[in-house]
Hints:
Blueprint: H1 12-35, H2 40-88
Helix pairs in contact: 1-2
Amino acid sequence: MKDVMDSKTHSSAWIAQSWISFCFAITSTTLGLIYLPLDSWARGYLAVSVAFTISSTIGVSKTTRDLHEGRKLTAKVEEARVERLLSDHHPLK
């Protein structure tokens, strides 16, 4: 049985919207940091904090995706194993 998520792909509009919103968020945050009335050390601290938040978010999303894909593979292997057991042990044979 084919998994429902295997047949779905992201549309080009969704991908474009995702990248545009990401770039807009980064640009607006950068402009906000540039024009924020703070000393350069405080501005640098906030910039590093934003960069760390972005890299952590990317890491968490990749880890979540990898765990989900791993569970799908494990489920497929387990399903194949059960199918084989059922086909090998037919009660009417």
